[in-house]
Amino acid sequence: MNRMDRLTAIVLLLQGGPRTAGELARRFEISRRTVFRDIESLCEMGVPIVTTSGPRGGYSLMPDYSLSPLQLTVSESFLLRLALSSVARLADTPFKQERESLLAKMAAVMPERHAAEAEHLLRTIELEVPQRRYTTPFMGQLIAAARAQAWLDVEYRSGQRTSRQTLRPLLLSSSGGFWYCRAYSHERQEERTYRVDRFISVNPTDAPPPMLSESAADVAPALPYGHPSLPEVCIRLTAYGAMIMERDPHLGDSIQPAEDGGLLRFRCPPSEYPWLLRTLLSLGPDAEVLAPQALKDQLRAAALAIAQRYS
């Protein structure tokens, strides 16, 4: 990013509210001294920046000041097109009409030369999104409920059975070409992740009465992932096992590199062990559970059951 683009970006950030020198330095990966010089340059250019001293001090803009609409650079246009094209690869996506509208607006305001360059970049770079065949008819309801912190009465088909649950959606995300919904389950009294295409029915409902172990004011799980009181899972990985697990969106960042592979360490509720077993079985000899003992016992039992099937 050249200096003029950075100065413009600083003004745009300040339009959203006050910022400290440290925040700006981290955001643009520059030194505080460079931030001071940039602020001084903006003031010399006539931008009305207010400086506040003290522990909570920083920079802000005078009220009612804003920049005129700015033209996107080639790189900015490419990033938007790349993001939109990646989302479009998903079998079902929210805001489809808005996506097409945004593409049309970009084409209208972008200079022809920039459009050609961005199109050329799109042919040389892409984000891999596996293409799946499924539908997510309740995506809009889940997004609306997460935004409003509302409760839903749902029927859900897991890999083992179909169940009815009362959920409060928290976050929707995409991984491996599928949409997932992280939600708090009233019946399970914990956060769980649900695949959106496996919802059979979704209906609004009133907030359920708190269970004996729940606080009426707070329905968050008592022990979130990573809580120090949860048992630590420790798994030794071969070099190949570490390479495979690095791709995992949930556990990849928990690998500690080692000369002969890696060590996977994290904390999670024991209720997640059945899901973890499938991952460990798929790794075969490239993963060895060191702790906890409960997970080792479950893995041994699962491996023996498979072996007996072929005895």
Describe the protein's architecture and organization:
It is a single chain. With 311 residues, the protein is an alpha+beta fold. 38% of the residues lie in helices and 23% in strands. The radius of gyration is 25 Å and the shape is globular. It comes from Dictyobacter aurantiacus.
Q: pLDDT average, as an integer?
A: 87
Describe the sheet with the most strands. Answer: 5 strands, antiparallel
Helix content: 25-40%
Strand order of the main beta sheet, please?
A: 6-5-4-3-7
* Unreliable stretches covering 5 or more consecutive residues: 214-221
- What number of domains? 4
Cα distance spanning the termini: 63 Å
Please provide the ordered H/E string of secondary-structure elements: HHHEEHHHHEEEEEEHEEHEH
What integer value in Å does the Rg equal?
Answer: 25 Å
Q: From the structure provided, what is the oligomeric state, counting identical versus distinct chains?
A: single chain
Strand runs, count: 11
**What overall form do the CA principal axes indicate?**
globular
| Structural class by SSE content | alpha+beta
Percent strand equals 15-25%
